Amino acid sequence: MQSDQDIKDAVDRDLRDKTAPAAWNTVEQLVLACRMLAAEGHWANGLAGQITARGEQPGTYYTLKFGIGADEAVPQSFILTDDDLRALDGESLPNPATRFHLWVYRANPKVQCIVHTHPAAVSALSIIGQPLVVAGMDATPFFENCGFLEEWPGLPITNDEGRIISEALAGRKALLLAHHGLLTAGATIAEAAALAIWMEQAAAVQLRAAAAGTIKPVPAHLARESRDFLLKPQITDLTFQYFARRVLRADPDCLT
């Protein structure tokens, strides 16, 4: 009979050898990320929220043109900016609230994509000043991995907000911002998008659980083990591909 460690090693090998990353390019992944997040209620309040990703050239970043809703994003909706949020085409308007993303990128060289949205459940936690509690398996990706910014620094369109938010993230992959919403910072677009979806789902469950009884956190050693598994790149990529297939079923032409 195989030992537990042998089984875990075999699962790791299968994930490495029998899965493949998504074949979509950066802009196509951003379109799909926008569409899947919109479908999950992350942009229900209009234009509030942003998604960005590093460009191919150092110091460049992809972002949506200001005024484009996530649910209507297509490849032409994305522009490249420099590291001072100036559109490289000289005419497009990026969302001015994207400026704080630049601070996160500077402080975290491994971060390739940032999602910031105001979905309902996360926003509810932020309004009542409650951090995310890791009390179920689906929340374990955020164990020791989700900061809580207790004071809202204001509209994030200046450098002060960028400094405050990047310091609060402190190298973690997620941040709950009081009176505001969520931020996820992924090593890939797939990871950032999956974390944003998971975070809103975890917040929704937490609110329902709190209304019904006492929340019991997952033991630390089990939460840590689950986190490390669920954040394997193969897992986040397969999760992204699943939500992307849903997007493409709903609108097969969104990438053209």
Topology:
Layout: H1 4-18, H2 26-39, E1 50-54, E2 61-64, E3 78-81, H3 99-107, E4 113-117, H4 120-128, E5 146-149, H5 159-169, E6 174-177, E7 181-186, H6 189-212, H7 220-230, H8 233-250
Helix pairs in contact: 2-6, 2-8, 3-5, 4-6, 6-8
Over all CA atoms, what is the radius of gyration?
18 Å
Which structural class fits the helix and strand makeup?
A: alpha+beta
Helix content: 40-55%
The main sheet orders its strands as 3-2-1-4-7-6-5
Question: What number of structural domains do the residues give?
Answer: 1
Please tell me what the overall shape is: globular
Please give the CATH class: Alpha Beta
Largest sheet: 7 strands, mixed
Number of helices: 8
Name given to the CATH architecture = 3-Layer(aba) Sandwich
Distance between the termini: 51 Å
CATH superfamily: Class II aldolase/adducin N-terminal domain
- What is the average of the pLDDT values? 94
Q: Which percent range describes the beta-strand content?
A: 5-15%
Q: What is the number of beta strands?
A: 7
How are helices and strands ordered from N to C? HHEEEHEHEHEEHHH
Remind me, CATH topology?
Answer: L-fuculose-1-phosphate Aldolase
Uncertain runs are: none
Which labels suit this protein?
256 residues; alpha+beta; L-fuculose-1-phosphate Aldolase; 7 strands; globular
What does this structure look like?
The chain is of the alpha+beta class. It has a single domain, classed as Class II aldolase/adducin N-terminal domain (L-fuculose-1-phosphate Aldolase, 3-Layer(aba) Sandwich), CATH 3.40.225. It is built from 8 helices and 7 strands. The protein is globular. The termini are far apart.
